[in-house]
Design the sequence.
């Protein structure tokens, strides 16, 4: 609030100060009252509406830090927003408000009298803009610095840049096969050199801390068949025998012989039995018969199952994608299981064998408030087409696989990543801090012009805002994959949605 003084009180104040000075002859210093910045306070700040720049531009929230004399939008504007010709609305109890707007390609600035020209265009594209506020009496003045922050990367983009590469956690120098699953909140990575097997286990893939040991199988196994239920690990031997383990190193036979493993469902494993060209569903532990396998159901090569729940269903459900039918045809179907029966949901994904599908939370911008909102989607990576060429497009589904579309350019894989099929994607959270958002565990940084995370400037800590000192960020880990010639990529990639590397605002 602007303080106004009665003009008759001024001589009285002067007299009192004079008397105080005369009564203390040893101290001849004057008593100087503290500066009252309320007479130069900026009370409101906003951008004026301009649909040619951004819808609802005037709704963008700005923080006014009176202590630090800073004005800024903590939630950055969408990537690509033009901020070189913005109009502002500023309120202050002042006799003069002067904006010093930078000129493009020059060190000069344009002085703008904002009180006289409220519709002036201001250039915020060259950094902080200085605004000088002068009090009504002309005695006090203060400089404020305004930042209009814009994302320099797209928040919902998925970058794999800073995670390339680490070798697979294996006891073998040149593994030829691998399969990675999540079990008991840990990552399990099984590798083989063609005759022996190694199992590596980690509860901290971010720092790449693994415990490795030999996996003891009673007979040779199909590494790619490794699957985890809620209570055990399963794998098929090369003769179809179903093996079980609770630690990943010691395995025992179940007595079952299957053609392939379809999917886990809670504590139950669903498989497929083959008999003279006919295929039937099987379960372990044995349950009610699920009947014959439909002709367009994937008997091999389907994605790992995604588990979800719905308010419209009483039981958990799983859904899986792609694969090959009994006739060898690649499929673009989505199949769901509700504990009692399978149902085909759609056929909108391109026909792909060995496609990897993962659930992922991305951040998008609400076009009304221009604040980030989180949406859970499915992302599909890699796979082999009908002609055995490899797919490089990343596909996105917003409705659990009912419909798919090619993701935008910011969701696509970088050029330096090889094409692949039969890759495994696991997701783990890691605790980040403002000073520790970079690589852990000696990950090799790939050369790229795309930043790993956005940190244009740290939001100012005010008296009323307590920013978190740490937060959990989900990372995606991509294990292995095979190239067009069938050889294994001995590599782990780590990806992250950029938005979740930003320090939350609240």
Sequence:
């Amino acid at each position: 609030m602007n303080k106004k003084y009665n003009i008759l009180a001024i001589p009285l104040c002067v007299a009192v100060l004079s008397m105080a000075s005369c009564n203390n002859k040893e101290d001849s210093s004057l008593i100087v009252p503290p500066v009252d910045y309320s007479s130069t306070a900026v009370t409101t700040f906003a951008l004026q509406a301009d649909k040619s720049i951004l819808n609802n531009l005037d709704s963008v929230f700005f923080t006014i830090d009176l202590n630090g004399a800073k004005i800024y939008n903590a939630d950055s504007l969408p990537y690509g927003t033009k901020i070189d010709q913005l109009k502002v609305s500023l309120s202050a109890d002042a006799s003069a408000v002067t904006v010093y707007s930078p000129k493009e390609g020059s060190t000069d600035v344009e002085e703008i009298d904002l009180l006289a020209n409220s519709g002036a265009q201001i250039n915020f594209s060259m950094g902080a803009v200085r605004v000088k506020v002068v009090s009504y009496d002309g005695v006090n003045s203060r400089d404020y610095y305004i930042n209009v922050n814009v994302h320099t990367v797209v928040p919902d983009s998925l970058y794999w840049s800073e995670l390339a590469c680490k070798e697979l956690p294996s006891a073998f120098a040149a593994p030829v096969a691998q399969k990675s699953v999540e079990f008991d909140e840990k990552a399990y990575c099984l590798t083989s050199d063609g005759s022996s097997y190694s199992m590596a286990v980690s509860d901290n893939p971010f720092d790449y801390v693994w415990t490795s040991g030999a996996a003891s199988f009673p007979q040779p196994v199909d590494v790619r068949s490794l699957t985890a239920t809620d209570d055990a690990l399963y794998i098929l031997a090369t003769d179809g025998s179903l093996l079980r383990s609770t630690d990943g190193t010691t395995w025992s036979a179940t007595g079952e012989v299957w053609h392939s493993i379809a999917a886990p469902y809670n504590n139950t494993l669903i498989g497929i039995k083959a008999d003279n060209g006919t295929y039937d569903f099987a379960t372990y532990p044995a349950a009610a018969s699920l009947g014959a396998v439909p002709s367009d159901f994937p008997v091999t090569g389907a994605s790992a199952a995604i588990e979800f729940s719905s308010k419209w269903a009483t039981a958990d459900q799983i859904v899986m994608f792609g694969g090959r039918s009994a006739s060898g045809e690649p499929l673009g179907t989505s199949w769901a299981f509700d504990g009692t029966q399978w149902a085909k949901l759609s056929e909108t994904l391109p026909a792909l064998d060995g496609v990897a599908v993962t659930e992922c939370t991305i951040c998008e911008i609400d076009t009304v408030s221009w604040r980030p909102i989180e949406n859970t989607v499915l992302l599909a990576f890699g796979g082999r087409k009908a002609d055995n060429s490899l797919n490089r497009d990343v596909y996105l589904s917003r409705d659990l696989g009912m419909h798919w579309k090619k993701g935008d350019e910011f969701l696509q894989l970088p050029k330096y990543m090889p094409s692949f099929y039969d890759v495994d994607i696991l997701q783990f959270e890691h605790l980040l801090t403002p000073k520790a958002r970079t690589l852990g565990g000696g990950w090799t940084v790939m050369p790229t012009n795309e930043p790993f995370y956005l940190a244009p400037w740290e939001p100012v800590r005010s008296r009323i805002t307590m920013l978190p000192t740490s937060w959990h960020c989900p990372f995606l880990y991509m294990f292995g994959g095979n190239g067009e010639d069938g050889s294994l990529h001995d590599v782990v990639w780590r990806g992250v949605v950029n938005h979740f590397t930003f320090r939350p605002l609240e």
